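Supplementary notes (optional reading)

For those who missed the lab, this is the record we used. Protein: Glycosyltransferase. Length: 404 residues.
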Amino acid sequence: MRDEPLTPADRAARAASGTILVSAQSHFGGIAEHAHYQAQELARRGFDVVMLCHRDHLLRPTAPLYRRIPGLRRSRRKGFLGRLVAVAAMAFNFWLLAWHMVRLQPRFVLLDAASEYFAPLWAWPHILLHATGRIYLANLHDPVRSRHFGPEWLHRWSLRLIYALLDGGLVHGPVPAEAGLPASLALGLAPLGPFEDTYSHPASPDLRQRFGIPATAPLVLSFGHVADRKNLDLLIEALADFPQVHLLVAGASIGSTQKQVGDYRAQAQRLGLADRVHFDDRFVADADIPSCFAAADLVALTYRSDFVSQSGVLQHAVAFQRPVLVSCGPGPLRATMESFALGELVEPDSVNAIADGLARMLAKPENRAAAFSAYAEASSWRANIDALLRLEEKVRDQRAMPAS
């Protein structure tokens, strides 16, 4: 169903409530989805929402209720030159955000994610804007900011800069102590909501046939970017104990520093599992997501112990009522599994733990409809935006307090 276009009276009413500027630096994937649905819900509440984004940011079937400024840039080149252009584009995007903040004077700016990457190149105008009263809020999808490149001193400097401009952040669950968030940063607890547009696409009935998976064979799905943090090597090794079970890895590799799909394909070949481990090694478009989950019997989220965030794949699994096999460190995903009976939670980084959890799920399938329903009710964009607006009020109250 498409949302109705705005009338001039609607736009006037929204302008009176103040503009909210959403910075959508990610153009695809879970973070981009999250920003889109937040903007939609804010617009439904009557706010004038403007999203600064890439030109190809989530070309969706649902008409946006918010305004878009498709001015962000990114590099499409490869190699060293491509990396330099990517850094320059990132800096340009944040300077462009600063310009639009000056131009629009928003009620607050909402960053789609709190990324500190190369902050010394772009943080300064935002720190100045923050000092003059602008409010910065962010989605802290991953509050534990590990160093991924460069020297440690640069990483720490970048973190200090991003936290110098942030007033508050939304988190999806308990924040691990190692996150080291400053005490001055106001926090709000907000759930992930459902990816509604995705579920409007019909599921194709021929996915199993396309990969040669028998209709009666149990099928485990690992969905999303192929990344080391997902422990796919351990999941594939555990599959050796289950001669009837098939695994579908649906997603593209994410970078040269990570194991590639070819590495996992070679591992399956060495273990004699090539006929039961299947790869759809591409970015899976929205229209194809329902087919993957409808064909699967369960979904594997076998993260490493250093994964302490939430997983957008869980939203897909719940929407299609597919139980999940989960491992992870302490954080929102673990808290969710401890609160809702959505599947099996096992210790991370262990082939035996994965195999034991899989054995339990296959031996005794449970009716988890009530748990899926309870989780879906607790995890909505309505609740997410309620938390965001409470966070804004909290920040305003803190700013109004006299300095001690």
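If you only remember one thing from this example: The mean pLDDT is 90.
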